[in-house]
Amino acid sequence: MTHGSVTERRAASPPSPKPSNKRARPGRDAILAWGFLGPSVVIFALFLVYPLGRTVYLSMHGNDIIGQPNRFVGLSHFAEMASPEFGRILLTTLVFTLGVVVPGVVGALVVVLLLEGVLRAQRFLRGAFALPFAFSVASASVIFAVFYSPGNSVLNGVLYRMGFDQVPWLTSQEMALWSVALTTVWMNLGYGVLVLAAGVGSIPKEVNEAARIDGATGPRLAWDVTIPMLGPQLFFLIVISTINALQSFGQIHILTAGGPVGSTTTLVYSIYQDAFAYGTSDFGRASAQALVLLVVVLVCTVVQFGVIERKVHYS
């Protein structure tokens, strides 16, 4: 090998890259990440962590006449809940939740399935059934207060013309809770229709066409194809409806104020009564009940995820 060939090879080979003087800066990436996460963490701590910690603190303290904590009472507020009165409140909350979730979800599903058979004005009808979702809780409650009014009730007027006796919608212990539940179902129906209608729209047309070729029509098509394909939307609606029902307050306050004789006093309304109503300012007892409500919501959600979600088909 000659000296010239060696020189030509060295000239033809690409020059080796120069070592970079820049060093990796993992700390810079972490600072940048926390810079973006910082506002969210601050808001999370300010509006969730601090209120939860404050609630736990108040639940273990008694308070003076203006609601300021002044003595440590430990778990005595929780021990007071082991009473028939609080058990009745929990039972009322359970009945009210079932009376809202089951008819609300089933009603929205029936409406959406019926609308699928309407070829003309389908969008208009969907918007009409979704309209209750646009009403605020206060507005809807005032409207139903007129419907339920003992003196000039619209519903009782219709029943009277049909030959039926008047119904004490809000003044009877047996009817008041169901009347408030009916109002809540009407208010939430629009949201359920929107969610399930979007789910129906996402079902591939090929699936329905294949089912029709196999002879599935009408109720069989809805039961064997549409409803199973709506599993994710139904599961979502059940969870959200349960949480909303457990937290319902405005319609109870406007229509019955927890009466008659406490028949519509749910856990949320009991918290309001202890903390703000009648000038009691018993924030310790109210905070203890709020923690119980938190546990109830968590338990219901965990059970629903553990039982219902297993039967959900995600396409």
Can you describe this structure?
With 315 residues, the chain is mainly α. It contains 14 helices and two strands, in the order ααββαααααααααααα. Strands 1-2 form a two-stranded antiparallel sheet. The chain is globular and about 75 Å long. The termini are far apart. The relative contact order is 0.12. The mean pLDDT is 86.
Largest sheet: 2 strands, antiparallel
Rounded to an integer, what's the Rg over CA atoms? Answer: 30 Å
As an assembly, this protein is single chain
**Could you give the order of strands across the largest sheet?**
1-2
Number of strands: 2
- By secondary-structure content and strand pairing, the structural class works out as mainly alpha
- Which residues sit in consecutive blocks of at least 5 with pLDDT less than 50? none
How much helical structure, as a percent, in the residues?
A: 55-70%
Summarize this entry quickly.
By secondary structure, the chain is mainly α.
Please give a handful of descriptors for the protein shown:
mainly alpha, 315 residues, two-stranded antiparallel ribbon, globular, 2 strands
Write the layout of secondary structure elements.
Elements: H1 3-12, H2 26-59, E1 61-63, E2 69-72, H3 76-79, H4 84-116, H5 122-130, H6 137-148, H7 154-161, H8 176-201, H9 205-213, H10 219-229, H11 231-246, H12 250-255, H13 267-275, H14 283-307
Antiparallel strand pairs: 1-2
